[in-house]
Automatic annotation (TrEMBL):
Its main location: cytoplasm. SUPFAM superfamilies: Aldolase. This is Fructose-6-phosphate aldolase. InterPro entries: Aldolase_TIM, TAL/FSA, Transaldolase_3B/F6P_aldolase, Transaldolase_AS, TSA/FSA_arc/bac. One of its GO terms (cellular component) is cytoplasm. The gene is fsa. The keyword Cytoplasm applies. Keywords: Cytoplasm, Schiff base. GO terms for molecular function: aldehyde-lyase activity. PROSITE patterns: TRANSALDOLASE_1. GO terms for biological process: carbohydrate metabolic process; ketone catabolic process. It comes from Filimonas effusa. NCBIfam families: fsa_talC_mipB.
């Protein structure tokens, strides 16, 4: 399973990249706004900086919602760097645009996936990734990991090449359950990635080893 970090914060991206386990980055308009990135040039520059920091797929989201504008915006984003993956929302014009990008050699990440039907449609259009938002499904009282499992089964049965990018991860346990459920990628906040490190018995064990090492 690949690990992406889900942030536009450069310090966090660097920290995850320094761990040596990072395969890419996802962003979205809310994450960009949180970092105070405003205006077209600043947005494009920020994506360029991220591409220079991390050698992996970098999702850059279009803000347009009609076919022609999605294509224009997506072309500009894709021109920033070969590692850019154009992130397109799961709407009718988005599906049409994903098909156009696929036919024209531009990779895509279909975002805001909340059902298996949406994932099938995006895969049929040739999306490189589909992003089911499992945390938001959990927040609504349903089971997000179940959706990852269902999509993984369908894609395996149907032979779809589209990768499942589990998104809206809230904790380390989500990452483990996504790995079990067959997600190809998890995009996570830094805290959830670092959460995988933690176990009290590791801390107790290390403290004891260091204590005993003084007697060596
Ligand atoms: C995915 O690419 C999105 O950026 C993201 O995972 C959304 O997660 P949230 O529900 O924490 O906003």
């Amino acid at each position: 399973m690949k690990f992406f970090i889900d942030t536009a914060n450069l310090a966090q991206i660097k920290e995850a990249n320094d761990l040596g386990i990072l395969d890419g980055v996802t962003t979205n308009p809310s994450l960009m706004a949180k970092e105070g990135i405003k205006g077209n040039d600043a947005i494009l520059n920020h994506y360029k900086t991220i591409c220079e920091l991390v050698d992996g797929d970098i999702s850059a989201e279009v803000l347009s919602t009609d076919f022609e504008s999605i294509i224009e915006e997506g072309k500009k984003l894709a021109a920033i760097h070969p590692n850019i993956v154009v992130k397109v929302p799961m709407i009718k014009d988005g599906v049409k645009a994903i098909k156009w990008f696929t036919d024209n050699g531009i990779r895509t990440n279909c975002t805001l996936i909340f059902s298996a039907g949406q994932a099938i449609l995006a895969a049929k259009a040739g999306a490189t990734y589909v992003s089911p938002f499992l945390g938001r499904i959990d927040d609504s009282g349903w089971d997000g990991v179940q959706l990852i499992e269902q999509i993984a089964n369908i894609f395996a049965i149907q032979g779809f090449k589209t990768e499942i990018l589990a998104a809206s991860i809230r904790n380390a346990n989500h990452i483990i359950r996504c790995a079990e459920a067959g997600a190809h990628v998890c995009t996570c906040p830094l805290d959830s990635i670092l959460g995988l490190l933690k176990h009290p018995l590791t801390d107790i064990g290390l403290a004891k080893f260091l204590e005993d090492a003084k007697k060596m």
